[in-house]
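not sure who needs this but someone in the group chat was asking about TauD/TfdA family dioxygenase from Verticiella sediminum so here u go. i didnt clean anything up, its just raw.
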Amino acid sequence: MNIVPTGQILGATVTGVDLAQPLSHADFSTIVRALAEHGVLRFPRMQLRAEALRRFSQRFGSLQALRATLPGDTGVPEVSTLSNIVRDGKPIGIPDAGQSWHTDMTYNKVVGYINVLVAYEVPMRDGKPLGATEFVNTAAAYDDLPDEMKERLANATAMHDLNLYWEYVRREKGSTRSALTAQERAERPPVRHPVFLTHPVSGRKVIYVNPSYCETIEGMPDDEGRRVIQQLFDHMLQPKYRYMHHWVKGDLLMWDHLWTWHNAVADYGPDEHRLMIRCQVTADRVFEPDFLREPLSETA
């Protein structure tokens, strides 16, 4: 396996491994550690089908399954379609651009670990790819915080609430989705996570707040909590912490939700087609002490 860093704040390109085949423990461990070091990994010319993508992704943890079937779904519940394509008046898959900065699944008690996307169609204009994905390095942002802020928030927690983002999309993005019902809100109640999280593989401290789901910090007056949260957001979104991935057809891209934010850039039109398939891996295994321990079956 060959891993070439981008030389930027995040990102590396990985070659010399076939992700359609079962991973050895050595290759699995190398990818996990590379993800903890670089945050975003690109595997070029790795256009896996849905079943193969599921097999690869589930090595890293449990997969999030789709709640509902949509036109264009892959037929594999854990593999969703992201697309702006409309056929016969119906969208093919889930739109995935212009959602604003976020990291995934922080509104769950068991949060997100990895996103794995495969690019089937990439919009192009004048020979240049559109629909890039931009990332933020939240570990580097933590390193640069003033010591006073680190000490003040060392043991702080923030509430993450799915309903905040749900209502934002309805209010600001013109979504026609209905409001969450009382039952749906009860099934997804607000959860608390530390403002500063220790990454289970790298051991680095990261800022673990989410502009989509966090509104304030526990134990602070609401106005003060909102002000501190906004200070963290503004600090993290400085250009020096950002990395832009420009997609190439056939890319498999995976990124670590625990120490990156991402934002899909909506710079393409409805006739400039973008089509990807995706797996979402939860962080139910990565925090376990034996996550990278070699299985007995591979040491016998």
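also Helices lie at 25-38, 50-57, 138-143, 147-152, 162-172, 182-187, 222-236, 296-299. if thats useful
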